[in-house]
Structure formats: structure tokens, C-alpha cells
Amino acid sequence: MTAPDAFGSPHDPRAPERDGPLLLAIESSCDETAAAVLDGTRSLRSSVVHSQIDIHAQYGGVVPELASRNHVLAIGDVVRRALDEAGITARDLSGVAVTRGPGLTGSLLVGVEFAKGLAGSLDLPILGVHHLEGHLLAARLGVASGFAEPVFPCVALLVSGGHTSLYAAEAPGVYRELGRTLDDAAGEAFDKISKRLGLGYPGGAVIDGLAELGRPDAIDLPRPMLKKGGYDFSFSGIKTAVTYWIDAHEPLSDETTRDLAASFREAACEVLVAKSVRAARRLGYPQIVISGGVACNRRLRSMMLEGAGRRGISVAAPPPSLCTDNAAMIGAAGYGRLWAAMSSGAGFEGGALDATSSWSLGPRAA
Ligand code: KG4
Ligand code: ZN
User: Going along 110-211, which residue ranges are E strands?
Assistant: First the structure.
């Protein structure tokens, strides 16, 4: 077993991959209420995701107060469905893992307090999980076709609407932050451009779909911090360049909109891929893991496979359903830690567990 880390208990490599005790996982950090049941670090029995997208879409982004209220309305039913689909009752559970942070405080609190109530009433151990560790370990539950099985050490590119970070992952639980966005997250840039084009929220998948039909070299856009800034990113510059371009060329034809989508997607993906591959080469790591909502992006996937593959680096990516927010990934990150705490008889967070809206997955690399 590795040494305890900032998460309370380390990952126990002896935790079963499947057919072990049943763990309930809960996620509510942003606008998805989700629950899952696992019987091992790599074995999912059920996964239920209730999305609030329809509610927030009319406001063009997530409204924190509405998010927490709707988590309260949904969470009981979501957990019940996850138990039903796994064919079990709450009494069959051996532990509960819940997203402790980072995320929206009010949203996190709903999941954390629900998990504490359930675990307390059944006298079960409970563990708070880091949302980004969930994204990082999601590939343990399944990889998309054409991608490799996850291995350590690896470089992890975690890209979503709220995060864009690059980590050196030496082993489960041992992470160093190589870089992060200095302004917008990559998904946020996709969403803002979609909104500016009148294509709705969230816009990543819409822009991705349009980009498939456009020319990626049609419009010259900046590649911010491609050659400098270490492993940090900046996406507000590309977003502003796109916005100015729209201002100057409106009204846009359908063809021009497709070209713009393709050119923006190409610029954003080029920076994400270049920095990830550079990090893996310099560290001598054999794999890059991509996860988070933006890792659904078709061009990011193909460009990463090509760029990393040329240098003998493999790429692991979960299928899209495990890239966007879900509770299965929280279970994947929580199972080995809960096992460690159960084996040692210590380390449960119990009543002390609290939502932590800002929380680093690991120290910044020197
Ligand atoms: O991981 P996620 O579900 O939630 C956060 O933690 O943010 O990611 C949602 C983000 C949104 O910004 C959405 O526009 C983006 O992922 N996204 C995509 C694609 N599918 C979802 N971005 C680019 N291309 C896609 N295909
Ligand atoms: Zn996320």
C-alpha cells in the first residue's frame, strides 16, 4: 500500500477489480445528479445520470442556485434507480463514495449531505472523492474503441467546461499538476462561441458536429501559448479572436459557420495535443489519458492518437458517456481508497466530510 496522501487514504492495489463488496458512488458537483454502483475498481453494476441541461440552457450557462435546488429534487430518485438497476438494496452496500470537490459549493453539499445521511443510517464507511481524480480514472471502467487500456505512469489531460489541466500521474493517487488554464476552460470557450453563434448551450458537441463539415484551415486563428507558457493554457484569446471575426463578417453563411467551427476546433485541439505530447515525451511516460467532456471531441481524439502515436505514446480515453460528468468515475476513484480505509480500520471521513469547492488534485510540479 502506498503512503496516505491528502485524500485521507491511499489507493490499495489489493482492492478487487470485480465481484467484491458493493460501493455506491454519488456525483453532484455541477449540473449532473448521478449515482452508480460498483463491485470493484473496474466493474460497474449500474450508472444513472440525471442532467439539468434543459433547465440551464435557457440561461446560457449553469445557474448555481437552480443547480443545487434541482439536485435536491433529483438525488433520491437517482440513487434509488442506481440501486434498482444494480439489482440490490441499500442494505447490500459496503461503502459510499461521494464527490467532495472541486465544484459549485451548493451543488456539492447536496451530494455530500445525502451521502452522509445514507451512510450514517446504515453505519457504512464514507469517502470524499476528488472530481478530477474521477475523470482521470474513468478509463479504468472502459475505453473507447481504438484507444489503449489505462496504464501508469501517464500524462492526464482533463478538459471540461470547468477545468483544463495537465497532470503527471505517477501512480493512482500520486499526481503533480504540470499546467492549467490561466483563464477560460476549453469547454467554456466552445460553449461561449456556440452561444455567440446562436447555437445554444452547452455548445461543444454542436461545434464539433459543424466542424466535421468545415475546412480547418479556412480562417487563421491564434494558438495561444503553443510555444511558451510551459504547460499552462489560455483559451480566452482564441475565443476573443473568433468573436471579433464574427463581428467583422456577420451575417455568416452556413458554410462560413462550418469553416469557423472547424478552424476554432483545430486551433484549440492543436494546443491541447501539443502540450500533452510534449509533457509525455519530456517525462518519458508511455501514455496520455484524456477525459472530461471536451475529450468527447472527435478532432481532439484523432489528433491525440496521431500526435502521440507518431512518438510511440499510447492514448487512453473513456467512451463519451464516461467522459462527461457521471458517478461511475467517482466510484472508480473511490473504490481503492475505501478498500484501504476499510482494511486499515481507520481513515473514514464520516461526519467530518465537507464540500470543498476549491481543491487541488496534486502539488504543482517544480
Ligand atoms: O465534464 P463535463 O460534463 O462537465 C464539466 O465538468 O464541465 O463537460 C462539459 C463540457 C461542456 O463545456 C461541453 O460543451 C463540452 O464538455 N463538450 C464538448 C464536446 N462534448 C461536450 N466540447 C467539445 N467537443 C465535444 N464533442
Ligand atoms: Zn467534470
Answer: 126-130, 154-159, 164-171, 174-180
